[in-house]
Amino acid sequence: MKSFAVGVDLGGTNLRVAAYSHGSEFLETIQLPTRRESGREAILIELCGAIERLLARYSGQFQLEGVGIATPGPMELPEGRLLILPNLPDWNNFQLKNELEARLGTPILVENDANVAALAECKYGQGREYGVESLCMLTLGTGVGSGIILQGRVWHGMNGMAGEAGHIVVYPGGAQCGCGSLGCLEQYASATAVVRMAHERARQGDAPGITHLALKKPKFSSHDLFLLAKAGDVQALEVFAAVGRALGVSLASLVNTLNLELYVVGGGLASAWELFEPEMMNHLRQCSSIFRITDPDLGDGQRMAAAKTFIAPAKLGSDAGLLGACLLPFTVSVSSSLQAQNIA
Amino acid sequence: MKSFAVGVDLGGTNLRVAAYSHGSEFLETIQLPTRRESGREAILIELCGAIERLLARYSGQFQLEGVGIATPGPMELPEGRLLILPNLPDWNNFQLKNELEARLGTPILVENDANVAALAECKYGQGREYGVESLCMLTLGTGVGSGIILQGRVWHGMNGMAGEAGHIVVYPGGAQCGCGSLGCLEQYASATAVVRMAHERARQGDAPGITHLALKKPKFSSHDLFLLAKAGDVQALEVFAAVGRALGVSLASLVNTLNLELYVVGGGLASAWELFEPEMMNHLRQCSSIFRITDPDLGDGQRMAAAKTFIAPAKLGSDAGLLGACLLPFTVSVSSSLQAQNIA
Fold it and tell me: Which residues are CB-neighbours of B146 under 8 A, at least 6 positions away?
C-alpha cells in the first residue's frame, strides 16, 4: 500500500492543508483564510477539521505516514512550542505540537515555514536539479527566512532555532530590525526592506521615479519598485543593487561557515533575481575565498578545488511551504537521526 | 588489546608527533622544529621518521586505530589536498594524504588544525565540562581559525572547508584581509589584528601608553598590549573592547545560523578573555534574539526557551591541536557517517 501524508501551511493570511502521496502531486488541497480576528481557538477548530477530512478521505486507500505542520516564526523543538509569531500574536508560546496531537490523536511534526520550504526545494526543486542533498535556502518575503538542509534533512540545531540567517548582521549599527538587533540581512533583503530603502532614497532627493511612484501610490509595494527598476529607473535599480550587496555579504558568511554545495534564494522578492544577482555575485566573490576557490563560473584550470558552490533562484513557487510540510513525515531531522545512532 | 593512535600537529614553527591511547594521557610526544628553509621533502622525511618510530614502539602493546594529521590552513577533502598554507608556501596544492599513505603504507586522516582543536575541546575540554557534543570553536591566534563539531564529529561541509568563521564579514568594506576580502573577523580578533589596531590607535594621537610602548618596542606583541591594558591603559583597553565587539557580532551570526549549545573561544589571544568578554557579550546579546531567548545568565522565568547557549573560553591549551589529531582516528566525520547511513 502506498503511503500518504497530510501537510499544513499555517500562514498569517491563509491556512492551507494538503494530502500528498510520496512521489506524486498533491492528492487534494484545501485553502481557507486564516481568520485571525476570530482568535486561536477558531483557527484550531478549522485546522483540525480540514486535517480530519483529509485523513478520513485517504486513509483507506493509502497508509498514513504522518502529519506535518509549517508555521511562521521560530519554534522550540522537540516540544514544538511556538515562540513569537508577529502575525499571530495570540499564538505566542503555544504548545502547538502537543495541542494538535491531543486533538487529533496522531503524532504531529512541526517545523517553521522557511525550513520546510528549504526541504521541498532540496527534494524537488534546485536540490534535485543540481543533484545535491545539502543546501541553505534564503526566503525573501515580508522578512527573510532561512533553512539549512544537511544530507536531505532539516538542520535544527539544539532546539529548532537553527537557520535564522535572516538575522545575520550585515551592517553593524545599521537599520533597526524587529528582532531587536541592528543591521540584520532582513533589513536589506526583504520586500519590506526594499520599500523602506526606496522611501529613504526618495527622501534624499534626486530620485524622480521613486518620488513620483510614492506620490501616485503612497503604499507602493516591492513589486511596484521592481516594475520601476525594470523600466530602467536608476534609483530603483540602486535599491535592488543594495539588496544584492547585503545578500552577497551574508552568503559569503554562510559559504565560509557551512561550505555547502548549494545556496538557493526564494520568496516573492526572488522574482527580482536579475536585478540583484550581479551585485550579489560580486560581493560573494569579494567576501569569500572559499567561494572563489569553488566558483563554478571559473574554468577548472583556474579553480583550486574540485568541488563547486552553486547559487540559484528557487524553482518551487508559493507551494514550497505546503509541499515541505507534506514531506516532513517522510524525513527525519539530522539531529534526531544522529541521536538515534547513539555514538559515544 | 587497547588501541592507540599517532597524531601530528604540523605547524609553521614546530612539528609535533604523539602516540596516544584513548582515554589516557599521551604515551609519548616528539617535538621538532619545522625546518622550513630545508624545504618540503626534508620536513616530510622527518615527519615520516617520527611517525614510524612511534608506530614501531607501540604497535606490539596496542592495536593501531590510525594516524591523524593536523595541518595549518584549508584542505580539500576527501582528497586531503592542501590548498594555501601561508607559512609553508611550497606545500600549496600538495596531496598530503596520498603522499603520506604511500610513504607509510597506512591510512591517514587529515584535518585542519582549527577543526582538530575544536574536536579536542569538545571531547576533553569545555564540551565535556558542559556535557555537550556540539560546539563551534574560534581560535584566536596569528589569524582566526574555527571548527564546527556536530554530535561529536567535525562538520566538513562538502569538501572540508566548513568552519572558516574567521572570514565572516564583520565590517563590510573594512580592513583588508589576507583572504582577499575586506572586514573579516580575523582582521579584528587575531593577535595580528590587535597589534595593527593598537598602531592605528597610536597614529590617531592621544594614546600615550601605546605610543610609549611602540617607541620602546617597535615590534610589540599582542601580549605586550595585553599587559598595558591590564595596567589600566584606556586606549589599550579600547583595542580589546574592539576585539569583543567583532567577536560578539560574529558569534551572533553563528548562533543565529547554527543554534549550537556551546561556542568556545581559544588560541593565544583568548588569555585576554576578561578584557574582551564584556563587549563580546553585550554585542552578542544585542545582535542575536536566539541568544537572548536562550541566555543562561537570565533566570528561567525570564528566558523563553528551555535550551541554553553557552559561550566559554577554551580549557585546553596549546596541546589541543596535537590531542585533536590523535582523536581523529577515533571519530568519523558527520558527512561520511551520514553517507554511510545511505538515506534516500
Answer: B114, B118, B136, B137, B138, B139, B163, B164, B165, B166
